[in-house]
Design a protein that fits this description.
Distance between the termini: 116 Å
Radius of gyration: 31 Å
Oligomer: single chain
Helix content: 55-70%
Strand content: under 5%
Low-confidence stretches: none
Number of strands: 0
Mean pLDDT: 82
Structural class: mainly alpha
């Protein structure tokens, strides 16, 4: 029969070669890739600008000369103490002692100052500066590490920036520890003289530090591990010579009497 064209209903639906969701996702990936490439270019440019300053900072920290200033006696005394402890306990792995030294000075002290210069200087640390300093601090920590950091395409840009510099910085750290080790040992008399001088000068800073609070925290630690400390002090030759176990017992008696 005859069908009028007016009675025909045509359904039209448009299809793409990819779904709309996938298309949007890939567009987002292209945008993110473009942004990351621009970001990386700016990072490289900033890194080149700051490279000399970062090198100077690391070279100054990991140098026994400190650009003309003598190495503080406390550092030599502490590092020798760590070497002696390794010998006493039969630790022959050099990486263990390296880690001890890194944790006691560079990672405990210097990283904190690198990340927070406002602790020392009267300056404002903006978010941008904080992000840049975080990269420098992370590079500093990687330089003190004994493990090799394998980098890949998924590694953060901050890690890739100093990938070629970190092996050089690691050599500086190892040389720094080696130079300190061959230095003339610090006698107990010289160390006591230095501490006496610090005690003489310390009254100038009485308003800046709460020494009683610091002593209270130290005593809380000593009281918590009293038995272990007493045994160790009685066995150690230096402690026995200076009667440190007896002195600690006196402190315990005084504190117990005051609390009663």
């Amino acid at each position: 029969g005859y069908i009028s064209s007016r009675s025909i209903i045509v359904f039209v639906q448009v299809w793409h070669l990819v779904r709309q969701q996938e298309s949007e996702q890939r567009e987002g990936e292209r945008t993110n890739k473009m942004v990351s490439e621009i970001y990386l270019t700016r990072l490289l440019s900033t890194k080149l600008t700051l490279q000399k300053f970062v090198d100077d900072l690391f070279e100054t920290i990991f140098s026994t000369a400190h650009r003309g200033s003598a190495l503080p006696l406390a550092i030599k005394y502490m590092f020798d103490f760590l070497d002696d402890q390794a010998l006493q306990h039969g630790i022959t792995d050099p990486e263990v002692v390296h880690t001890w030294k890194s944790n006691s000075l560079p990672l405990r002290f210097w990283v904190n100052l690198i990340k927070n210069p406002n602790f020392v200087f009267d300056i404002h640390k903006s978010n941008i500066v904080d992000a840049c300093l975080s990269v420098v601090a992370q590079t500093f920590m990687d330089s003190c590490s004994t493990s090799d950091h394998r980098l890949g395409k998924d590694s953060p840009s901050s890690k890739l920036l100093y990938a070629k510099d970190i092996p050089i910085y690691k050599e500086w750290v190892e040389r720094y520890y080696a130079d300190i080790k061959i230095m003339q040992p610090i006698s107990d008399q010289d160390m006591n003289a230095m501490l006496a001088e610090e005690s003489r000068v310390s009254p100038m800073h009485t308003t800046e530090f709460n020494s009683l609070a610091a002593l209270a925290e130290l005593y809380n630690y000593a009281f918590k591990y009293s038995d272990q400390l007493m045994i160790t002090l009685e066995e150690d030759e230096f402690s026995t010579k200076n009667r440190l176990a007896y002195r600690l017992e006196q402190v315990h008696n005084i504190m117990t009497t005051d609390q009663e």
